[in-house]
Amino acid sequence: MKRSALSFRALAGASLAGMFLLAGCATVKQQIARLKPTPPPPSTFDPTPVPDLPPTDPALLQPPTNPFVLGPGDQLQIEVLGDVTTRQKATVGPDGKIYFYILPGVDVWGLTVSQAQDRIAQSLQRFVREQQPVSITLVGVASQRVWILGRLSRPGIYPMAGPMRLLEAIAIAGGPASSTVTTSLSGGVIVGTNVRGSSDEAGDLSRAFVVRQGRMLRVDFRRLLREGDMSQNIYLQPDDLIYVPSASSDQVHVLGAVNHPSSVEYIGQMTLSEALAKAGGLASKEVYLSHVTIVRGSLSQPRIAVVDFEAIQRGEAKDITLEPQDIVYVPFTPYRVLTRYVDLILDTFARTVGVNEGAKAISDRAAGVGLSVPAVAP
């Protein structure tokens, strides 16, 4: 009996010791868990107050004063008046010359039609004693063109033989893919359903843009096409690029000091940290992480959030939840003037998208370029 009592006491003591040991282990685990920083849940987009961006430049609404000048690919009909046998069509060659009648080649590149007419007449006098009046008619334009790309019914590269406004260019391309655009007699805009059907991806007018010589022009496509605001109906110049993106695109555009600047696929509730990781991470230790910027919404009136990513990395601030079509920019240097900083980001974004879409318009095999920015912000 004594041995049984002792065994029972020993067993009970061991059990109690085990329970205390397990409880102690659980307590230690809880204490260790408390020591590990738990990342806070992602935060929502908090816009930074930005002074009003400048409106559309009134100078863009003035018709161009430069006359049309000839270039390679332009077609002319030339005739020595009084001699129908000399009538012929001539194309300005890659060397800028046209070959007509008995002339060995006349350089007309950069001349107006009337100037080319005078030059041909003067050249004929070297072979014919009497002055020969010459008639020239422009019958085809290839040297000057405008690029109209994206979610349009008939995107493409179109000739520009004379002054052209933005609304006319969009109409030439058939209007946004999900709607038709016509101009009323009073100058307003009528938007209706496209006969192609609702299966087409809609064009995002809030993010459409015009690029001229590497700069994005401040134009509000929605005000022009939806509200008939003719103050947005700017005059175009040769080689302007008009782009209307898809409204259903699920991408985030990562620019600047990352290893692989690119448009990354938006998956789930993507955060700022995840987007930077998908772009290959930071390209240098010298980047200015306290001024990482997120641009959201309309390109004509964007919302801006300047984020301290260093604080996010240290766990002192919440990560930011992104949305499709956000533009993320990691700078090498701090910005000085916020409006100029925003212009830098938007110019780079529009220019790079324009280059990639223009390359695709020429060849489906064209390799895209990355979304990069100058190392030093202005």
Please give a quick description of this structure.
With 378 residues, this protein is α+β, with helices and mostly antiparallel strands. It has helices at residues 2-35, 113-124, 166-172, 221-227, 272-278, 309-313, 338-362; strands spanning 75-80, 88-91, 97-98, 106-107, 134-140, 145-150, 156-159, 179-183, 189-193, 209-212, 215-217, 241-244, 251-256, 262-265, 292-296, 303-307, 327-330. The longest helix has 34 residues, at 2-35.
Describe the structure.
Helix content is 26%, strand content 20%. It is α+β, with helices and mostly antiparallel strands. Strand 3 and strand 4 form a beta hairpin. The strands form five sheets. Strands 7-6-12-10-11 form a five-stranded mixed beta sheet, with helices on both faces. A five-stranded mixed beta sheet has the order 14-13-17-15-16, sandwiched between helices. The protein has a three-stranded antiparallel beta sheet with strand order 2-1-5, with helices on one face. The protein is built from seven helices and 17 strands.
| Major sheet: arrangement of strands | 7-6-12-10-11
What structural class do you assign from the helix and strand content? alpha+beta
Overall mean pLDDT stands at: 80
Share of helix among residues?
25-40%
How much of the sequence is in beta strands? 15-25%
Order of helices and strands: HEEEEHEEEHEEEEHEEEHEEHEH
Number of helices: 7
**Cα-atom radius of gyration:** 33 Å
Largest sheet geometry: 5 strands, mixed
How many extended strands? 17
- Low-pLDDT residue intervals, each spanning 5 or more residues: 1-6, 19-23, 31-36, 179-199, 371-378
CA(first)-CA(last) distance: 94 Å
What global shape is seen?
Answer: elongated
